[in-house]
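During the reporting period, our protein records have gained a structure token line. A sample record is set out beneath this paragraph:
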Amino acid sequence: MEAGVGSRVHPRYKGIAEWDVKAIAALPKPLEWEDKSLLGKVTYKPKMLWLTCSEYKRVVWFAYWMATSRTQGKVRWGGGPPILEEDTFLELLKLAIKQGFFTDSFLRSLKGEIELSLNK
């Protein structure tokens, strides 16, 4: 079952395995394709989750859920980091920024790095 805002999730990070989902940046519809050689119909739902716990207020988790013909269309957690195309990553980042995932200082630093890269 997919996590939603307010859910508790259990990825291990810095010895902590219980996190509350503060917000989710998700594409409006999942990516879908046909893998004729192995998986059949694939539904891929990459997301960015803003996680919190008593020690950390802002942790970003790149998670994904995937369903295939082999899982009879049932959604399963991905087992490792997601693979994201550049435009998919940008869309998730924009959605996360609009939901307040990041502090102003982080966004200013990101802006500075982008400006430096564009002015090379």
Summary: The longest strand covers residues 40-52.
